[in-house]
Amino acid sequence: MNTTLSTPSAAAEAQFGRQVAARLSAGTQDLPHEISERLRAARMQAVARRKVVLVPQAASFAVPNGRTAVIGGGWWTRIGSIIPLIGLVAGLIVINSLQEDSRTNELAEVDAALLTDDLPPAAYTDPGFAQFLKTEAAAQR
Questions:
Q1: Are 115 and 124 in contact (CB under 8 A)?
Q2: Which residues of 63-81 are buried (b: 16+ CB within 10 A; e: fewer)?
Q3: Does pTM top 0.85 for this prediction?
Q4: Which single residue of 5, 48, 62, 81 could bond 11 by disulfide (Cβ 3.0 to 4.6 Å)?
Q5: Are the beta carbons of 80 and 87 closer than 8 angstroms?
């Protein structure tokens, strides 16, 4: 039986299977004929029921000039897997830009309110003014 193993894990699995089969077959020479025949029949059933793994192949077809064209492999597969990543990065850039614009607008509104107020901006940084505002708010209640 000629099988092609597509991944290293499949090769390791096949090697493990061969080791288990060798270990199980090691003591079969000493068994009676009836038991060894039952074991052989069970092995044949297990091999018949084994799971067949199909490795996907690129589709190919003949084109009019006599050559064979291959579909599904190579560049198209790579491009198809990169497009969602590009979309994600572009979306993140747009979201970041919108948030920066929003923050800039909020800061501009605060600056405009401070500059158009009757008080000078230095009054807001004065600790005595902050205390004055607290006592005024308490007095108005």
A1: no
A2: eeeeeeeeeeeeeeeeeee
A3: no
A4: 5
A5: no
Digitized pLDDT (tens) for each residue of the chain, 141 residues in all: 445 556 778 888 889 888 887 887 777 777 788 888 888 888 888 878 876 666 665 555 555 665 655 555 677 778 888 999 999 999 999 999 999 999 999 999 988 888 888 887 788 788 888 888 888 888 877
Cβ-contact 59, 71 below 8 angstroms: yes
Q: What's the CA gap between 130 and 136, in Å, rounded?
A: 10
Alpha-carbon distance 109 to 112, whole Å? 5
Give me the residues paired with residue 105 across strands.
none
**What's the distance, CA 47 to chain centroid?**
36
For residue 85, count other CB atoms closer than 10 A to its CB.
9
Percentages helix, strand, coil for the chain (3-state, rounded to 5) are 70, 5, 25
Alpha carbon distance 48, 45 (integer Å): 5
Report d(CA 56, CA 72) in Å as an integer: 10
